[in-house]
Amino acid sequence: MAAPRPRSGLRPPAAAAAAAASRWLPMGPDGSRWVPGPARPVPAPRRLHVSAVSATGSARAAPTSAHRDGGLEPRAAPPAPAPPARGGPGGRGPRGGGSGGCGKMAAAEAARPGTPQRAPLLLLILLLLLFLLLLAGSSQANSVERKIYIPLNRTAPCVRLLNATHQIGCQSSLSGDTGVIHVLEKEQDLQWVLADGPHPPYMVLLDGDLFTRPLLEKLKAASSRVSGLAVALAQPRPAAGFSPGLPCPNDGFGVYSGSYGPQFAHCNGTVWNPLGSGLAYEDFSFPIFLLQDHNETQLIKECYRAHNIGENGSAPVFPLCAMQLSAHMHAVTSTVTCMRRSAAQTTFSINPEVVCDPLTDYNVWSSLQPINGSGRLDPGKRVVIAATRLDSHSFFWNVAPGAEGSAASFVTQLAAAEALSRAPDAPTLPRNVLFVFFQGETFDYIGSSRLVYDMERGKFPVALDNIHSLVELGQVALRNSTLWMHTDPVSQRNDSVRDQVQQILSALRSSGATVPNVSLEEPGRTQPLPPSSLQRFLRARNVSGVVLADHQAAFRNQYYQSIYDTPENIGLQYPPSLTPEEALNHVTETAKSLADVATLLGRTLYRLAGGEKHDDTIQADPLTVTRLLYGFLIQANNSWFRSVMRPDLQGYLGGGPLQHYIAVNSPVNTTYVVQHILANLTGAVLNRTRDQCHGTGTDKDLFEFAWVQGPEGPSGREPLCVRSTVRLSKAVSPAFELQHWASADYSTWTESRWKDIRARIFLVAGRDLEITTLVVGIVILALSLATTYFINAKLLLFQGLGT
């Protein structure tokens, strides 16, 4: 996809000169300053001052008032010395010591280097005063900017992502894009933005219900009249659903292709995400921001109603309420282009400027029985893999709640790992069990493709030949008591693979019979696998596997990869009277339902690992599930999560729910938290001090050790030493290790770098006021030059008189 031309900036030269010379100006059509009406349920904003910036210009803080220097009044000149008397009667001649000789001596005395000079002293005083004036002006600049602009602090931008062939996302011009605000509350209001409005370009404030592909395509086609878009969260969420993802997620990077199940390639026959609009995979040449604070949204609407609505249907008059959005992206075109530029910078520049970074993080994995992390598993040993994904995505950067898309699944697998680790014969089962939590699966299977790549090349303790079977959890929270067991029809053409798959299905049915609230069904034998990590294993080897999901065909999740895939989407509710600590331990119906799925998974893994006697003892704890759901979806910084984290990592808990975007700085919050919770649920607490909390001998290769904060006690925290088999492995696409940036086999997603992300509102002046301000600025400049010339002339005169 061709890169969009960078926006040239919206400030005309006259407006820039006006902004440089102007002071903040009176507010409102009648000269008064605007303050929201007291009847509105929003906090009273700071007063807005009109910035002398064009409606089509980029916002810039107006400087403080110009300080005119009146100059220094020259002190009265001392009386000039009398001219030397000529020689004559009564006086000495030229050779004598008369008055003429005294005058020369005085002049010579004044010319000595040590003699004080009045003119340089005056010049020094003048320079000092000018310096003080400049210092005062600079100290007031920030204060004036705060009076002019109101920052929007709780926003999330749409940023630019790139793959081997395309760029997607949004960006602003280098200095940010500015426009007059227009609020769209119904689709008919769009005509004002596209044609009728007299003050383009417009910054559109869009209600979340109108954030649809058809409307954005109209705005995109009229980009000359649209400078940006601010989206308010829909409350309540759109009833018809909303998914900016693709109808066929990860198309082209799964197992189905022209050479493997071509009848299933490109989601032929089964469109998994029918509500997917693909908006998150489009490229926009203007910035788009999400407004996450309802109060800030109301503030913008108050400003719009006060200034941007004309009387009796007429056009509004200046000053008008405007918005500036800044989100300039450094990378363009594709991953191939940006990685080459970054590589060239690194090779030839002393201070290289990287323009994009690969999406990267870590997979989290652990084993039921210890595995030597620095060695290789014996070829004759077999492992059962339980897999799920950690990440999610939405249209906006780092806003990825993923309640149904990922969180419910990895919470279920965490609870299953705890239940299975407590089985009496877990350490002696014939087959080991590997719990894997993949990162980056949303972006063409980054985590699973890297694990398979490492297994093939001996960079992971377990090889592909060691895999006995694989059970994956897809989306499981929206079931109506039924879970669907998805398998691959192509690989089952091999008799041995079909027999092994039937063994997995049999183990699931046997385990399901012991869990009364779960029923299991198979879709048609001719239906392909849904988007899943199992597909990446099948690309390398005929692995026997099953994907458990709450949907038979199309996703039940109407908010897949959306900002609305929140706790509400999976029915997670708490009584309003509960305190945070009470809510943490309140067992919800959703937690009970997922605990049943975790019990099913734990018992199935036990059977696949060769266990027979104690499957009825494997029971997931609903309290564990409810704590996990509360921590990942409501408030991560809670007492239980704090107790399992290392003291230096507590900051990763943040101040609200965790977001599950993979990002480029790793490990991300979710990875760290899952790592420590898995260690807490499956590991052992050792009676060791902090200095002793490490491995010795063979332990250091078999286990990981962590000194965690521990629970709150009467005298403070009680730290613990936890030993577990939990480890991290790289989740970065092999394409970047191989430097195959145009790869069609591996994910090539990168994220552009940027310098500044900012959103703010202000009042913008009209063109007449701009011209007036420009003229006044020129006059002040001329007077300043004349005054400077006059002062310099006076100084030269004083210097001449002094000599």
UniProtKB/TrEMBL annotation:
Q: Where is the signal peptide?
A: none
Point to the regions of Pro residues compositional bias. Answer: 76-86
Compartments in which it is found: Cytoplasmic vesicle membrane; Endomembrane system; Melanosome
Which InterPro entries does the record match to this protein? Answer: Ncstrn_small, Nicastrin
Q: Which UniProt keywords apply?
A: Cytoplasmic vesicle, Disulfide bond, Glycoprotein, Membrane, Notch signaling pathway, Signal, Transmembrane, Transmembrane helix
Q: What is its main location?
A: membrane
Q: Which GO terms describe its biological process?
A: adult behavior; amyloid precursor protein biosynthetic process; amyloid-beta formation; cellular response to calcium ion; central nervous system myelination; epithelial cell proliferation; G protein-coupled dopamine receptor signaling pathway; glutamate receptor signaling pathway
Show the ranges annotated as biased composition (Gly residues).
Answer: 87-103
Where is each Nicastrin small lobe domain found? 157-331
Please list the residue ranges that the record marks as compositionally biased, kind Low complexity: 1-23
- Example of a GO cellular component annotation carried by this entry: gamma-secretase complex
Q: How does it sit in the membrane?
A: Single-pass membrane protein; Single-pass type I membrane protein
CDD domains xrefs: M28_Nicastrin
The terms under GO molecular function for this entry are: aspartic endopeptidase activity, intramembrane cleaving; ATPase binding; endopeptidase activator activity; growth factor receptor binding; protein-macromolecule adaptor activity
Out of the domains of life, which is the source? Eukaryota
Q: Cross-referenced Pfam families, in alphabetical order?
A: Ncstrn_small (PF18266), Nicastrin (PF05450)
Q: What residue spans carry the region label Disordered?
A: 1-111
The membrane-spanning stretches of this chain are 121-138, 771-791
Summarizing the function annotation, the protein's role is:
Essential subunit of the gamma-secretase complex, an endoprotease complex that catalyzes the intramembrane cleavage of integral membrane proteins such as Notch receptors and APP (amyloid-beta precursor protein). The gamma-secretase complex plays a role in Notch and Wnt signaling cascades and regulation of downstream processes via its role in processing key regulatory proteins, and by regulating cytosolic CTNNB1 levels.
The family assignment reads: Belongs to the nicastrin family.
Q: What is this protein called?
A: Nicastrin
Q: Which organism is it from?
A: Ornithorhynchus anatinus (Duckbill platypus)
